[in-house]
Amino acid sequence: MEDEHLSLEMLAKWLSGGLEHDDVLNQVAPHFLALCTVCRERHREILDLQKEVGHWNEEVVVLEGQRAREQWAELAVQPFEEQLKRVEEDESLHAWGLCQLLLKKSREASFDQPMAAVNLSNLAVKIAGYLGEAYDPNWVHDLRARAFAYLGNARRVLGELRSAEDAFLKAEKCLARSRSGNTSVEAEILDLKSSLRRAQRRSREALDLVDQALSLYRQNNDLRGNAKALLKKCKILEEVGDLKQSIALLQQIPEQVDSWDLRLLAYARFNLVCALILDARYEEAEQLLPDVREIFLKVAQPLDLVRLRWAEGNIALGLGRLGPAEAAFREVQQDFLTREMGYDAALVSLDLARLYAQEGCKDELKRLATELMPIFEARDVHREAIVSLLLFQRACEEERVTVELIQQIADHLRRERRGDGGGERVI
């Protein structure tokens, strides 16, 4: 039909170069994209790259996005000092696409390789500082703000809370200079800063920040950002003792997660299992295990499966299945020790001690305390973990161990761990 095609006047304007750019984008381009399946597929690829690279300009997205992977492949094999030198001296590396790729890799590394995450975000901060007139200045301010926020987040995970605070102050100064109106950047920075406030044990401020982020995510119809922030809010509510609200929110999250985002769904369901365990609702937690295990096997990291096994042990203990609980705790304890994850190994050891204390197994408690101390002293374990285990060992020797005492030691250790920047994976 004639009205499906460009009008004679519009076609003439386009061919002569007189058609406004907005009309080309809104009328000419969609018409030709509808006719050609190859172009349609390439347009979808550009849209995907825009999300990945985080820029509005299609040319920047395509050229810099593809080049960034090659540039990082060359940089990645070099030590950090050499990477920093290259970034400072090589103007070809002063590119939006490379900066964005470094930020993405920093966020991915923040939980499992926090020192690598710090290095990656430091490189991104450097590159963002060199971006000049080739880019919109307001978008550059936004990118610099994100780079500093990612640096602060990585330092927070390392436990460097003062330097993390400094990085977030710089992020906020950059954001204040921007007139882009891009509230998605503001939402992300508020979201990350709430994690810092949580690590600083400033829970009420953390809740306020995450609520601000949630409001912006909803304004932008960002379902994934909204679900991630809700996961964080649930963890903070759990820490301030509001388990009921935390569980209620966690039960809503799966309804808000797109079906394709299985990993986010996996963490939402796993965090719900953990919250139900804390609330002693072991039967409900056990009913969720098969679904969580099925999703974890598809998308989770190896360490996530270890944590799921730990949850299985706590459910078994709560339901009085002592043999399976002991087997799970021993298995997880050994896995954490092999990975040199001192805090987690200490915490699961205390779960094992809780099992023995519950059954009045004094000899097993003494044996556990005796075997643990040499293991932890031989590892790079934070002082607070050693102090907690020494308290436990002394109580075992004096035969005054109770379930309540073990719980107090475990709670203290968890608080110190959060203050050191660590903690369970939220997403």
Quick structural overview:
The chain has 427 residues and is an all-alpha fold. The chain has 21 helices and no strands. α8 packs parallel to α10, α15 packs antiparallel against α16 and α20 packs antiparallel against α21.
Using only C-alpha atoms, the radius of gyration works out to: 26 Å
Helical content, roughly? over 70%
- Number of DSSP helices? 21
Structural class assignment: mainly alpha
- In terms of quaternary structure, what is this? single chain
Overall body shape: elongated
- Following the backbone from N to C, one meets helices and strands in this order, namely HHHHHHHHHHHHHHHHHHHHH
Residue windows where pLDDT falls under 50 for at least 5 positions: 419-427
Count of beta strands: 0
**How would you characterize the largest beta sheet?**
none
The fraction of residues in strands falls at under 5%
Q: Distance between termini?
A: 51 Å
Average residue pLDDT: 82
